[in-house]
Every structure is written in C-alpha cells, then in structure tokens.
Design goal:
Layout (H helix, E strand, L loop, with lengths): L15 E6 L5 H7 L5 E8 L4 E7 L4 E7 L2 H11 L2 E6 L15 H9 L8 H10 L3 E3 L1
Antiparallel strand pairs: 1-2, 1-5, 2-3, 3-4, 5-6
Length: 138
C-alpha cells in the first residue's frame, strides 16, 4: 500500500465536464431521448491526486472510473467528446431535494453537479445547465 496515492478526504472536482452525446447506444434509446442529445455522462479533474473521475449512468448500471492523468485518460475523454458537446459546470450547493424522479443519466448528472432542473431528457438538462452558468467547452 505504500505506493498507492489517495486523494485527500473530501476532495472532489471543482468543475465537471458534462458530455452531451449525440449518438445513442441503441435505436430504442435514440428514439426515447427524442432530441439532439441521446446520453449524458461526466468527467472531473482532481488536481490534488492527478486523477480524472469518470461518471456514467446507464439503464443497466452506473460506472465510476478513476484514471491517473495520462494517455489512457485523454483517450477516454477524446472518445467521449467525439460525438458530443461538452459543458463545463461548477458544482452547486444550496437547496436539497429529498426526492429524485428516476435514476438514469439525466437526473443522475443533474444531481452530481447540483443543477436545479426538472429535465428528464438530455436536451432539457443541456439548456438548464447553460442557464445556470455552464459553459460550452470547445
């Protein structure tokens, strides 16, 4: 365990990069999303540990990956951004809701970054994040 570097307790990304993907994993999911964006996931940088955190929620399961900065992390980011629009969003604190409707990619990402929205589809979350200070990253 001596060569394992752990992030300091309580450290989380100061900014989340939210990937609004324009391609769905299946025709059925493409139809269900009904808009420009078909799926949403996120990545955040933790400078204290030199690591990226990737968060992806699908109907089958949630995935969290922690990857040390380097070629593997950047290849994953490149693949995510290939058919996506990326929005940088600073996590929000404030009013907490005790009830969340559903747990698929849209409510999960809204919850992760603290975006106050009623959005159920990726397009709605995209508009809400931009209204609340998110910035499109080129």
């Amino acid at each position: 365990m001596a060569d394992v570097v752990l992030a300091p307790p309580g450290v989380e990304p100061a900014t989340w990069f939210v990937f609004f993907e324009t391609r769905a994993r299946s025709r059925w999911l493409s139809w269900l999303a009904m808009g420009r964006f078909k799926h949403v996931s996120a990545a955040g940088w933790i400078p204290e540990s030199g690591q990226w955190v990737f968060y992806d929620v699908s109907l089958g399961r949630s995935r969290i990956a922690v990857v040390t900065d380097g070629s593997m992390a950047w290849e994953h980011i490149r693949a995510k951004r290939e058919h996506a629009v990326t929005v940088a969003f600073t996590p929000r604190e404030g009013r907490h809701f005790w009830l969340r409707v559903g747990f698929w990619c849209v409510p999960a990402m809204a919850h992760l970054v603290g975006c106050r929205t009623q959005a159920l589809r990726p397009d709605g979350l995209y508009r809400a994040m931009l209204r609340q200070g998110g910035a499109v990253v080129d």
